[in-house]
């Protein structure tokens, strides 16, 4: 790397036809300055690109109900916040008691967010499902399988004490952009 060489070495390099020979013990190393600078610049650009973070927001899904984004797009991935079975207009659940209806709507909302991010349900690699009751596992699976009929993503499912707005189900995802 350039930082490992003294100014004198770089100056010598520039004046000696863009070749640097660095003596270290009994070894001799030859470097092309322009190659080093190019690689250094490429690495910095790669780091900058990998550090880009884009907030994803769409009016086609319910707005976040707290200080978080619907999704974040970063490093070639989309991180979708937990989706609830809320109607985007009324911000009410499509059903207070039917976990299947809430699951259907949560996954539809997720699909809209992924579309806004330039992704899709087919690119989901991991989901996490949070349930108010593990007794709803089979009902959620029945709906879930219609959204991921072939090669479903990796998944974790947990029963929790309470979900936002007393939801019956919440689903988050990680997808490829």
TrEMBL record:
Listed transmembrane segments: none
| PROSITE patterns noted in UniProt | UPF0076
Q: Which GO terms describe its cellular component?
A: cytosol; mitochondrion
InterPro entries listed in its UniProt record: RidA, RidA_CS, RutC-like_sf, YjgF/YER057c/UK114
Recorded GO molecular functions are: deaminase activity
- Family indicated by similarity: Belongs to the RutC family.
* PANTHER family named in the record: 2-IMINOBUTANOATE/2-IMINOPROPANOATE DEAMINASE RIDA, 2-IMINOBUTANOATE_2-IMINOPROPANOATE DEAMINASE
| UniProt-recorded name of the protein | Uncharacterized protein
Q: Which organism is it from?
A: Tieghemostelium lacteum
């Amino acid at each position: 790397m350039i930082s490992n060489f003294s100014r004198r070495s770089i100056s010598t390099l520039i004046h000696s036809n863009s070749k640097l020979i660095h003596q270290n013990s009994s070894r001799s190393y030859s470097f092309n300055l322009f190659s080093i600078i190019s690689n250094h610049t490429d690495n910095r650009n790669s780091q900058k690109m990998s550090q880009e973070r884009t907030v994803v927001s769409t009016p086609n899904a319910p707005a976040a109900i707290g200080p978080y984004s619907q999704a974040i797009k970063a490093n070639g991935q989309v991180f979708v916040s937990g989706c609830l079975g809320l109607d985007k207009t009324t911000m009410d659940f499509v059903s207070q008691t039917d976990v299947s209806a809430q699951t259907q709507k949560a996954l539809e909302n997720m699909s809209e967010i992924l579309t806004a991010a330039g992704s899709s349900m087919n690119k989901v690699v991991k989901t996490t499902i949070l349930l108010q009751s593990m007794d709803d596992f089979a009902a959620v699976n029945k709906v879930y399988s219609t959204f991921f009929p072939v090669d479903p993503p990796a998944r974790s499912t947990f029963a929790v004490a309470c979900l936002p707005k007393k939801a019956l189900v919440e689903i988050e995802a990680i997808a490829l952009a």
